[in-house]
Amino acid sequence: MIKGRIVGTGSTTPKRILTNKDLETIVDTTDEWITRRTGIKERRISSNGQGENTSDLATSASLKALEMAGVSADALDMIVMGTVTPDRQFPSAACLVQKALNASKAVAFDVSAGCSGFLYALSVATNAIATGNCKNALVIGAERLSTITNWEDRSTCVLLGDGAGAVVLTPTTEHDGILSTHLESDGSFWNLLYASNGTYKIPEILDTVEGKPFYVKMEGNRLFKKAVECLADIALVALEHHGLSSADITLMVPHQANLRIIRAAAERLSIPMDKVYTNLQKYGNTSSASIPIALDEANQEGLLKAGDYVLLVTFGAGLTWGASVVKWSV
Ligand code: COA
Predict the structure, then answer these.
(1) What is the CATH number for 265?
(2) How does pLDDT run across 132-151, given as a tens digit for each residue?
(3) Shortest-distance Cα residue to atom 12 of ligand 1
(4) N or C: which end of the chain has fewer CB within 10 A?
C-alpha cells in the first residue's frame, strides 16, 4: 500500500513581535491574565507591503521544506494549503504559491477547515498519493489572523497570531509515513467560532495591519470544553486504529490554541507534558499554521528521529477536528 511520507519541513513567521505588554496598551488586559489563562506570551503580526502576505509566508516556509526534502518545485504534483485567511477570496493562496515557486506541474488549491486546515490538507494529499495519481505533494498551513481580528475584543485578540508551516510528502511502501488521518466535523456548533461581517478600528500601534471586513467571534467557554473533549477522543481513535498506546508516542504535536486545553487533553490521554510539543508561548494560535510550525520546530530541535511515532491532533472552527499518526521518516 502506498502512503505519503514527510521528507521535509519548513516554517516562517512574520518579523514583528507583539507582546502581552504591547496588548496592555490596546485592550483592557494584563500579561498576567493572558499568561495564566492561555500560556501565550507573544505572537507575530504580519505587515503590509513587507512580503508578509499569507502566500508570501507560505512560499517562504515551502522553500525551506523543499530544500530539506531535496525535492524541486517542478517535481510537485500537488500543492494543498489549509487557510482561512488567503490573500484574496480567489484565486486560492495555493495558486499564488504555485506561481511563486514555479511549480508548473502541480494542481493547487486551498482547504478551509478552521484551525484544522493543515490536517485536512494533509489527509487530502496523502490520500492522493495512495491512489497513485500524485507522487510529490506540498502541504501548507498559513494564516494572517491579524487581518480578521477584532482588536477591540480582548477575549479573542490576545489569542491569535500569524505564520506559515509546510511539509513535503513523497510516496512510501514501507511501514512509515502518514499511517492514517482521522477527520471529523460537526456543523451544528458552527456558531462557537466564526467570522462575522463587520468593520473594526485597527489600533495605532498596529497601523501596518491591513484589516478585512470580517472578524473573529468566539464563545470561548463552550469552545474550551468541546476542544478538550474532541482532541482527546480523536487522538484515542487514531491510536487505537494502530493498536498503539499513549506510551508508544514519542511526541504529540497538538494545535496550539491554549496551554490549558493542551494540558487537559494530554492528561485525558495519559501523555506527560514532556512528550507534548508547545510553542504557543511565542506565536499564540496561528490556526492552520500552528501544527506545521510546531512540527518544523520540533524537527529542527532534533526531537524526532526516524521510526518515532508522532501524534498530530487538532481542533477548530466548523467545528472540525482530527488526528494523524505519523511514523517519522525525515
Ligand atoms: N484580559 C483580561 N480579562 C479577560 C480577557 C483578557 N484578555 N478576556 C476575557 N477576560 C475576562 C472576561 O471578561 C471575564 O470577566 P468577568 O468574569 O468579569 O465576566 C473573565 O475574564 C473570565 O472569562 P472567561 O471567558 O470565563 O475566561 P476563560 O478562563 O474561559 O478564558 C479563553 C478565556 C478565551 C482564554 C478560553 O475560554 C479559551 O481558551 N477558550 C478556547 C479558545 C480557543 O481555543 N479558540 C480557538 C479554537 S481553535
Answers:
(1) 3.40.47.10
(2) 989 999 999 999 999 999 99
(3) 155
(4) N
